[in-house]
């Protein structure tokens, strides 16, 4: 079972990289992708946790904004983690998440919600890429909402008056940086319209021109219709088709392996990286 998109406590998941690797192996995953938001800080722990024939695909989910202001998540996989340019791009994104969080808290406080940056800091694992789910956890702790889901539904979604974006690269720039670092790019949940505004079909051509390799079609946030439309886009542009869980531990309902990628599609994607970078532990 191939699941290329999961999160850990290095961003807004609730399992450590070590726990994630253990749970993935137990769930029958054979190829696991690590895709923490704007960070590669879990790579080492996950690599050290390998104890079976599980194969690890190191990556990151890069937050992007199109020139029209549409939020796009770009999965970068199999890139060289030591590449300066990509690490700078990820660090810049992480940095802007702090003032952005302060603004969201200001907005909430102005509307009478009793929440502070200290509350959010307490709900954020050390070193994690700061995100709205940590704010959601703080709101749960303060009994302002009951769950992350309720926090997003009522207060934190992209269409909410409290929402603030953070500075991010364009998806084209992210794709180019990932490619320069030897990796491959797959656009995550591109038609998940219930999350907010989505890109239109014509944008895919510009992404392909920048070097996009694949589309995440099978994802819980895509309706049947959205999947069908994306399959047609993938076919017409000869893009790799992936499916993945976007697992976040207990932070979301998504279960490991609930959506998966076909072996053939994965092999094609992997062959597009400039080096073989899948991590595996060779059995003696
Ligand atoms: P941010 O990176 O701060 O913009 O937050 C986006 C993250 O929030 C995404 O990775 C999602 O996993 C998470 N998210 C979005 N909607 C929900 C939801 N309804 N419940 C829990 N987490 C969510
Ligand atoms: Zn997330
Ligand atoms: Fe995402
Ligand atoms: Fe994700």
From TrEMBL:
The record's section on InterPro entries has: PHP_dom, PHP_domain, Pol/His_phosphatase_N, Pol/histidinol_Pase-like
Domain Polymerase/histidinol phosphatase N-terminal: residue ranges: 2-66
Cite the GO molecular-function annotations of the record. 5'-3' DNA exonuclease activity; 5'-3' RNA exonuclease activity
Q: List the SUPFAM superfamilies hit by this protein, alphabetically.
A: PHP domain-like (SSF89550)
Q: Which Pfam families match?
A: PHP
Please give the coiled-coil regions recorded for this protein. Answer: none
Q: What is the official name of this protein in its record? A: Unannotated protein
Give the originating organism.
freshwater metagenome
């Amino acid at each position: 079972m191939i699941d290329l998109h999961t999160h850990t406590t290095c961003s807004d998941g609730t399992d450590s990289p070590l726990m994630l690797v253990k749970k993935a192996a137990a769930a029958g995953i054979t190829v696991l992708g690590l895709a923490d938001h704007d960070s590669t800080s879990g790579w080492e722990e996950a690599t050290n946790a390998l104890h079976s024939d599980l194969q690890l695909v190191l990556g990151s989910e890069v937050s992007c904004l199109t020139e029209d202001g549409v939020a796009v998540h770009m999965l970068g996989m199999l890139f060289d983690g030591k590449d300066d340019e990509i690490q700078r791009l990820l660090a810049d994104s992480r940095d802007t998440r702090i003032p952005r969080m302060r603004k969201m808290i200001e907005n909430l406080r102005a509307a009478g919600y009793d929440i502070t940056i200290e509350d959010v800091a307490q709900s954020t694992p050390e070193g994690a890429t700061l995100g709205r789910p940590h704010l959601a956890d703080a709101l749960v702790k303060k009994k302002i909402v009951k769950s992350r889901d309720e926090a997003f539904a009522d207060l934190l979604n992209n269409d909410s008056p409290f929402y603030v974006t953070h500075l991010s690269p364009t998806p084209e720039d992210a794709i180019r940086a990932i490619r320069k670092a030897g990796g491959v790019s797959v656009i995550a949940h591109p038609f998940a319209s219930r999350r907010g505004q989505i890109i239109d079909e014509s944008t895919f051509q510009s992404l392909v021109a920048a070097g996009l390799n694949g589309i995440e079609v099978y994802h819980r946030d895509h309706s049947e219709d959205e999947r069908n439309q994306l399959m047609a886009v993938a076919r017409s542009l000869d893009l790799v088709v992936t499916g993945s869980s976007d697992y976040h531990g207990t932070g979301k309902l998504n279960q490991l392996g609930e959506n998966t990628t076909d072996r053939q599609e994965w092999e094609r994607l992997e062959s597009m990286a400039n080096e073989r970078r899948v991590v595996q532990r060779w059995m003696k």
